[in-house]
Amino acid sequence: MPKDAPLNSGAPEAPSGSHQRVSGMQTKLHRWAAADHGRRFDDLFNIVCDPATLLVAFERVAGNKGARTPGVDGLTVVNVERELGLPSYLEELQRVLKTGEFRPLPVRERTIPKPGGSGKVRRLGIPTVSDRVVQAALKLVLEPIFEADFLPVSYGFRPMRRAHDAIAEIHRYGAHGYRWVLDADIEACFDSIDHTALMDRVRARVKDTRVLRLVKAFLKAGVLIEGGGREETFTGTPQGGILSPLLANIALSALDKHVMEPWEPGGRMSTRGRRAHHRLHGRANWRIVRYADDFVVLVDGSRDDVASLREDIADVLHPLGLRLSPAKTQIVHMSDGFDFLGFHIQWRRKRGSNKWYVYTFIARRPIRQLKDKIRALTNRTSQRDPGTVLKRINSILRGWVNYFKHAVCKTTLKALDQFVWRRVTSWWMVLHRWRWKDVRRRFTDRNGRWHKLSADGIELFPMVSTAVTRYRYRGNTIPNPWTLKLA
Questions:
Q1: Which residues belong to any copy of the Reverse transcriptase domain (predicted)?
Q2: Which of 57, 113, 363, 367 could join 344 via S-S bond, C-beta 3.0 to 4.6 A?
Q3: What is the mean pLDDT of the chain?
């Protein structure tokens, strides 16, 4: 199809469910975007306002954890369904969108402490239910278009990609000589993105002015701060908005493309032979791995090469209104190790041999955070029901170990199991006024072997029972939902 051609949204369609209709629309958008990287899409607004799109968007909002959290209007998803009725609510939302009466309300600010005990807080913006539904509808339409342009080195907030893929890529290239690392963090990324630069990147793919006005309206909606009063948003996209991660990826794709330009077909790092020739003549090779606003640049070269790349990256980020955090950005050698996405990655000698490998361990911070959660649940003055507490502990432990089970962690898991066991038994001894012999009598058999701790039929989950396996590197073969449908 020619560039800038409108979608054939008025064509007759076969009767199907809302999810099938939206999925088919997304597949077409992605196919057209991938076939022509210079194409700008028009008439997207009618797809955003389509009843099927709004219904699927509402279902996604209702399925999120924040569905019970109200925005500035005080309404939750439950209020909408009970008081307004879903069909009439979606009809009215479609009407105000089409007539141009829709105006996003300011997001309600909520601050939460940042992890690590630094004392700093993260500002979240909670939109109203209607704003969330419209943002979700925009994401349904825009995501398949921009996914065609995103590079495979980006892993955060993208469909069918996860943090483990980023760690596996670092592991792979670290094992192949890329051992100097720029461990970078963008300072206040979501709060600082320049709106003009971001909208320019959106316009490169979207021609429909109604969609562009809608995206800009969300960027300019403002924040109702916790202390009272309204704060205008001249930069940034609020954390907590459904559309914000996609917009951040659109902005930061400029960084990915700049760093990975030599890897494009015909570039000086595009093949293994060219990279070897490049290195043979004393020039460095590099590769970026990014997860949202956290990224590392792996360099097969020297420390000076990394320092030069750092300055180059700072120049790329500046037009986007972004800058590297001086406190969190560092140049390290992989033999010293660095933390990324909760893992500690280090190139070290295998014990008992002279061979060196890249190992992935669990970083100290998530271990400390897990222990803090267990301590809070097993406070010795707590009078909570032991069965309820065990349920909550098991939920935390299962989620934690499923995330970290691909690291070298058997010893760590054993130590953590012992820590949890001691915390629970110490709490129960105070709660039930037991002595040590009472604990032994209840949780050992006649041969002196220990049973699992249990209460009300609920057993404490042993993390060490989880199989520790190497995560399979998927590289450039990671599909997305729309290429799978085309296959």
A1: 93-345
A2: 363
A3: 91
